[in-house]
Amino acid sequence: MTIPDYVKNAAQQECDNFLAEQTGALAAVISSADGFDVASAVTKSLDPARIAAMASSIAAIGSVVSQETQLGVSKSVTVNTEDGVVYIAYIELQGVTYILNIIANSSAILAQIIYNCGEIRKRLKEL
Amino acid sequence: MIEYKLVFTGITGAGKTTAISAISETAPISTDVANSDTGFQKSHTTVGLDFGQITLANGDRLRLFGTPGQSRFDFMWKILVKDAFGLIILIDNSRPDPLADLDLYLKGFSEEIYTTPCVIGIGRSESHPTPSLDDFSDKLCEYQLTLPILPVDVRLADDVIMLIDVLMAQAESDLK
Amino acid sequence: MAKASKLSLGCLGLIKPEVDLIRTILRMSSRLDETWVLVERGECDAILIYNPDKNYEPFQLKQTTKLIHIKRRGESASGYVFFKPFRADELIDTLIAIASTTDEIAPLITQSEEPQITYKLKKWPSAELLQQDKHYMLLAVHLSRSAKTLQDLIKLSGRPEIYCDHFLNFLKSKDLLEINFNRIDIQHKSNSVKEQKQTFFSMLRKRLGLI
Prior knowledge:
The structure holds 3 protein chains of 3 kinds. Chain A is of the alpha+beta class. Helices cover 43% and strands 31% of the residues of chain A. In chain A, strands 2-1-5-4-3 form a 5-stranded antiparallel sheet, with helices on both faces. The radius of gyration of chain A is 14 Å and the shape is globular. By secondary structure, chain B is α/β, with parallel strands linked by helices. A 7-stranded mixed sheet of chain B has the order 2-3-4-1-5-6-7, with helices on both faces. In chain B, a hairpin with a 5-residue loop joins strand 3 (44-55) and strand 4. The longest helix of chain B is centred in the last third of the chain and has 19 residues, at 157-175. Chain C starts with 6 loop residues before the first strand and ends with a helix. Chains in contact: A-B, B-C. Chains B and C meet through helix 4 and helix 5 of B and helix 4, helix 5 and helix 7 of C.
């Protein structure tokens, strides 16, 4: 399904804002469920296309785990690392499932990331 | 209990998920999502992995893994092929350039392809006879590889079992 | 090894007029130069045969005996073939090819007990070739993995020596075989790993209905 330009632009704006405002943010990537980046804001040498593909794999595996364990629908996957965190959450654009992938260093607070991603989800869902 | 791992890879639509479904003793786990890539005429595509298994009489298990087909998921290829006893590359001969498709996986598994038992399964070769199996053999020569190349229909359990039998023969040959 | 002055050809299952024709070709061909002679029994270097059978009486197959299958034109074929309707030049070409391989292969086969000759596939054989016999694919698999001696091949495949030898000669005639005269040292896996894998494969074959 093709996303209308205004939705894409809004998604891009959310990524840009997140990167600018979230302490410790290194990347914000919104991708399709099959791993294509739709909107992104990244720092350093991070590759949005690569991040999008990895995020979709991780999200899909998270879904399978939640199904197998009968714990309901997967909402997010968190990868805690030595120097930061990767947070992958499901969002919706125009009724279609997409994936929001956040990469942040250790100065970020996970709870804040989760909260802000929730707000992004709400705003994009209303478009 | 001993567990061995077998990996199915190959181009999207070649039948990796189908092959595992044909022989897995349980309904395979799959990570299929809606496909937005117009280069492939499929409604869904694997983005994580497929998983099935076969349990033997003594409790040993063969775990069957399917990789995503697209090269943007090649990080999953590396993860899944680690410690696999065999690799099956499935090709769809109805595609525009099956030899180029094979190139992708020979390059993508360049570390494993020379040591891990590997067999190439060519699907839809009856309806699409070119490139021929000999053309694939010539392609492998470019990589200095001599791998078994077999026409298969992965919807048929017998054909998938034949691929696994050839892999076992290769592994047994390596044991000598 | 010096080439034998005469090579012997047997005919099995041919009718008398066909045998007479073959005898005439052998005698009259300047290209063959009387290197081939027709024999009616005993050991021979090649046999013209309609249907390969385990019983080759009154002939006795040597390790180096080549089978020349007689087939109808248009039938799929691989290996040494003589098509009907017969053409003299085709038989002559085949006998010349066999004579040349006999010189090269025979010494290799007689040295099969010595470990220094190994064989490896250069290229996966054609589907047509492999369909010739249900065991050919298994042999090709073993030869594709790493260099093998004839004895290795016999042990791995469970096929008799003459069978494996015939296949090796056949591959060589198609230039599909790499032959090495130096023993290639192969790292042997520990027995426990080998046994574990062999047991697993045996059980997996049972589970998959292969045995």
